[in-house]
């Protein structure tokens, strides 16, 4: 496991400490949980969006046609 240094404003660090204590874990443990949850959420949203696009234009079976334009049109801003 790799250790990293993270800079947080004092008020945000207090929130992290309070929530970590409430959950019975450490700062590192709580931050790890947050990152894992965010990553899982993003993966689920991506899969849902891909299913929506498939439903709109049918499943993508090749790299031809209007696939690139469709991806660009529905690409999230972030």
If you had to describe this structure to a student in words, what would you say it looks like?
The protein has 78 residues and is mainly α. The protein has one domain (10-73). It has helices spanning 10-23, 27-57, 67-73.
Residue-averaged pLDDT: 88
Structural class: mainly alpha
Instruction: Please tell me the total number of domains.
Output: 1
Please mark out the parts with pLDDT under 50 across 5 or more consecutive residues, or reply none.
none
Order of helices and strands: HHH
Q: Rg, please?
A: 19 Å
Proportion of residues in helical segments: 55-70%
How would you describe the shape?
A: elongated
Percent of residues in β-strands: under 5%
Characterize the largest beta sheet: strand count, sense, and whether it forms a barrel. none
What gap, in angstroms, lies between the N and C termini? 29 Å
What's the helix count?
A: 3
Number of strands: 0
């Amino acid at each position: 496991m790799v250790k990293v240094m993270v800079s947080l404003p004092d008020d945000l660090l207090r929130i992290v400490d309070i929530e970590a204590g409430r959950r019975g874990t450490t700062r590192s443990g709580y931050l790890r949980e947050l990152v894992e949850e965010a990553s899982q959420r993003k993966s689920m949203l991506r899969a849902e969006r891909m299913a929506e696009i498939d439903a709109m234009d049918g499943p993508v079976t090749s790299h031809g046609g209007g696939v690139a334009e469709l991806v660009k049109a529905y690409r999230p801003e972030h």
